[in-house]
Amino acid sequence: MAGVQDQLEIKFRLTDGSDIGPKSFPTAASVATLKETVLAQWPKEKENGPRTVKDVKLISAGRILENTRTIGECRSPLCDVPGGVTTMHVVVQPPSTEKDKKAAHLPKQNKCVCVIL
């Protein structure tokens, strides 16, 4: 019975409403491990898929999960239904463009505009 408690059934809901999973994970698994699973099982026919684990954000019970935490640490008591499947929402950050990267490195310039009527 202790082995069943150490496993969670998780499915990943994509933004278009389709799902990946459900799949069983140990509660000691890290959020980064979940993201690797999403990345590996991402449907190839979908556009704008994640390229790296850093492109993926997992949301559970309204919270964005941190890579360094374990599933057991992130588990919500509201979602803890024995034998139930936990749904985590997947958000993919769009890749930043070269223009965005250059703008981030440039110092902000103060612009002042005066209009005299």
From TrEMBL:
InterPro entries: MUB (IPR017000), Ubiquitin-like_domsf (IPR029071), UBL3-like (IPR040015), UBL3-like_ubiquitin_dom (IPR039540). Residues 6-115 form the UBL3-like ubiquitin domain. GO terms for cellular component: plasma membrane. It is a lipid-anchor. Keywords: Cell membrane, Lipoprotein, Membrane, Palmitate. May serve as docking site to facilitate the association of other proteins to the plasma membrane. This is Membrane-anchored ubiquitin-fold protein. It comes from Linum tenue.
